[in-house]
Amino acid sequence: MKPVRTRFAPSPTGYLHIGGLRTALYAYFFARQHQGSLVFRIEDTDRERYIPGATEALIRTLDVMGISYDEGPVLDDKGDIAEKGSFGPYIQSKRLDTYKQWAEELLRVGSAYRCFCSAERLETMRREQTLAKRMTKYDRTCLHLSKEESDRRAGAGESYVIRLLVPDGETIFEDVVYGAMKFPNADVDDQVLLKSDGFPTYHLAVVVDDHFMEISHVLRGEDWISSTPKQIMLYAALGWEAPTFAHLPNLLNADRTKLSKRQGDVAVEDYLKRGYLPAALNNFVATLGFNPKSDQEIYSTEELTALFDLSRVNRAGAVVNYEKLDWVNAHYLRHLNIEELARAVHPFSETLDFQNPVLLRALTVERERATTLAELPGRLGPYLEPLDYDPGLLVWRKSTREDAVAQLGRLVEHLSTVADEIFSEVLALENNVQTYLAANQLDRGGVLWPMRVALSGKAQSPSPYELAWVFGKLETLYRLEEARKRLA
Ligand code: GLU
User: Fold this and answer.
1) CB 362 within 8 A of CB 354
2) Is it the case that residue 479 has pLDDT exceeding 80?
3) Which of 67, 69, 96, 174 has the fewest CB neighbours in a 10 Å radius?
């Protein structure tokens, strides 16, 4: 059997679409589980859509997302584009001679022809076809030019494109996800393969590259299904074996329309900026349209690589459920190693110094309640700031100002006698305070409410035990005493 070689071949249009991320992940899982190779290729022959810097951005995003590839463009130490792998170049604009060579070979074998029609003529033709409610496709005017005339006009420097000559009949292929596919060739346009400026179109470039890069499996979005017959015709015309195709269903908005910017972010980079963790995004995106087990939602990349099954990708489009993404991200926030989490929060606030133990403990408490990295700085900042609250907030609704003052005083007295170790564990603190309440027959709200407000300055916050643990004994006693004084 041929070695498995998959590829991820985005166009550098400015960002990585989350549908593209899913394609990249599936190609990665599939290559890895077959001990094969993943090729990364930049399809930049559509110069109108080209965005400078987009290739570098794609390389960086794949790196952040942990999608390692075996061949393709990489960034060197200076941030310039270099390449790894021996099937390159992996950037299509650097392979123009190759495409030209194979376009000419197609001319030679009679599977393609030169077309000299002007843009104006083609536009008029298209308008007429549209008005007559006919399919818009090239009317083959130039197919009828004799070889001599075609050669003469090309030799005289007239501008032309090279078009595929679609043969009669039908094109059949077996898609791993969609099953048997059949297209009448009469519905396929004589596609331009090489433009007048010498650039190939996507169709020619993709076939030449997939062939010479020895790609065994093409995984890509379902939008490319209708292009596949043209590509299969090219393989046949050149006498090359076509790869196995697996088209992946689109990601959908809640209303089942194709995922669009209008209904939410679609760029992976935007999700990262909003504080979603790469691992959470990967987990979420990978399980859209494919879930290995019905009772599990969280998977590591290793698990997904082992469990991924291309033939079980769901044919129906997958609705992107943003609440589920929040849930998955919150899960990752809670389970990440705390030092790693601190490093992940850093880009969102470079002023927070996690060497400070109070801040690290505050992170431990606040991550239980957070959904994204981006919201953590706002939650953590107040732990380091002097408190500013209305002293009236210290009074529990079923209690009085005098009682709050008295309870805070007693609590300070009690906690000053508590051993330092008790403050190093939330549960030990909770047990200690609960025992204190029971032994003195004190009302929970009457003690715990002012304690919590004294520590947080807020009506809503983590529990008083968590807060006391974050601040440690000295600061806790200081805040409680401060509160008592403010109220007294
Ligand atoms: N370059 C195409 C894109 O930007 C990929 C098509 C393919 O994978 O064949 O989506």
Assistant:
1) no
2) yes
3) 174
Reported as a single tens digit per residue, the pLDDT across 115-152 is: 999 999 999 999 999 999 999 999 999 999 999 999 99
Residue 322, helix vs strand vs coil: helix
- Give the residue among 171, 190, 218, 192 at the shortest CA–CA distance from 103: 192
Does residue 1 register a pLDDT over 80?
Answer: no
Radius of gyration, CA atoms only, the chain:
32
The whole-model pTM stands at 0.93
Using a 6 Å cutoff on CB, does residue 9 contact ligand 1?
yes
Identify the residue whose tokens are 């290729």. Answer: 41
- The verdict on the CB of residue 317 being under 6 Å from ligand 1 is no
The helix-helix angle for 464-487 and 444-456 (nearest 10°) equals: 90
43 near 10, Cβ under 8 Å? yes
Tell me the two tokens of residue 63.
């790196």
On the CB side of 415, CA atoms within 13 Å amount to 29
pLDDT for 284-326, tens place per residue?
999 998 888 778 899 999 999 999 999 899 998 899 999 999 9
- Closest by Cα among 85, 222, 111 to 163: 111
- Residue 349 has a CB neighbour count (10 Å cut-off) of 15
Tokens of 77: 């130490």
Mutual orientation of helices 401-416 and 464-487 as an angle, nearest 10°?
A: 120
Identity of residue 90: Y
- Taking each continuous run of H as one helix and of E as one strand, the counts in the chain are 18, 13
Mean pLDDT of the chain: 95
For ligand 1, atom 10, which residue shows the shortest CA distance? 10
